[in-house]
């Protein structure tokens, strides 16, 4: 079953349950910022989490828990805590949404880009091992050499668009390719296509057999 | 799914509003009594040791106290809000990595489509939809959905505990999640 292709809903549900590793969570969360329909589905999976929490068999807190907690309420006044992500006045990065912006310098030019034919790419450094996270810029109208994957690959379009015979992907669209897919992405002709991609490195697949529903899901 | 004799949803939402508006400790104690043991159960099931789960539960409750005014009953149920806080605290504490997530309240985001006319009504009704969807699943599949959300276990461990072959656990979990997605209107199952 670990070879079953992953669906978008698999990812949304796993994100709601808090099961995705950091690089995969980054791609899914950035997709959510760009896709209102996925956000609606994500809210449903959060609501499922809330309902399950209501139905869980409770575990009593320690004796005196309320007294200890109540004593700490004095230290903290409610209401005025800052939002986790204060809005920056000037958009520092290139029209790219949160949460991706947190991982980028003010300008994409500050990143170290490598260059192969029509492809420019740069690695982003994230917490989880076993994944490779990259920004990839494909020149307008040009093709990536035909390839298969060692593992799974998630590709989120940030600017421009590409097509690969399986679909046409525009800003905010998430392409999910597993090891079986043999494809050749081609950027649309009018502008460069900038994507965020995560691949699970081959070493990920040498782990305990049957451990993962799919390598992207922590289960 | 709501526990039999527990307080009603509306009472708990009144309590969080009382906390937001006037730092009402009695109201907060009602929230503590209902959610505290559930948050702890959630954290324990996900593998936190008892003392860690206790400590993190206090953190979740203190966050509820501080951010009570941010809870918006038009956008989610209280339990969904609490679940999200507990999930986040757990990742922050136990994973030692960043936790990228979308800010659902960011006004800069393009509004979500409203499938049934009014988006707020749709979101409000979602939890009832979820309960109904869960109720249509056989008990075994409900159990597997709970495992997906609440247990950080490998498929092999789950198979051992349930006394089922590994392949059976994987296919049934997949089936349960797929059915639930269809019931929730998620689409591609």
What do you see in this structure?
The complex is a heterodimer of chains A (219) and B (189). Chain A is an alpha+beta fold. Chain A is built from four helices and nine strands; from the N terminus they run ααααβββββββββ. Chain A has helices spanning 8-16, 22-34, 36-55, 65-73; strands spanning 114-116, 119-124, 131-138, 153-159, 161-163, 168-170, 174-177, 186-187, 193-200. In chain A, the strands form two sheets. In chain A, strands 1-2-3-9-4-7 form a six-stranded antiparallel β-sheet, with helices on one face. In chain A, strands 6-5-8 form a three-stranded antiparallel β-sheet, with no helix packed on it. With 189 residues, chain B is mainly α. In chain B, helix 2 crosses helix 4 and helix 3 crosses helix 4. The mean pLDDT of chain B is 84. The interface between A and B is large, with 77 and 96 residues.
| Main sheet record of chain A | 6 strands, antiparallel
Question: What is the share of helical residues of chain A?
Answer: 10-25%
Q: Give the overall form of chain B.
A: globular
How large is the count of helical segments of chain A? 4
Strand order of the largest sheet of chain A: 1-2-3-9-4-7
Q: Tell me roughly what share of residues is in helical segments of chain B.
A: 55-70%
Number of helices of chain B: 8
Task: Work out the largest interface and the residue count of each chain.
Answer: A-B, 77 and 96 residues
Determine the structural class of chain A based on helices, strands and strand pairing.
Answer: alpha+beta
Span between termini of chain A? 13 Å
Mean pLDDT of chain A: 81
Order of helices and strands of chain B: HHHHHHHH
> What's the N-to-C terminus distance of chain B?
24 Å
Helix-strand category of chain B: mainly alpha
Name the beta content range of chain A. 15-25%
Radius of gyration of chain B: 18 Å
Order of helices and strands of chain A: HHHHEEEEEEEEE
Cα-atom radius of gyration of chain A: 21 Å
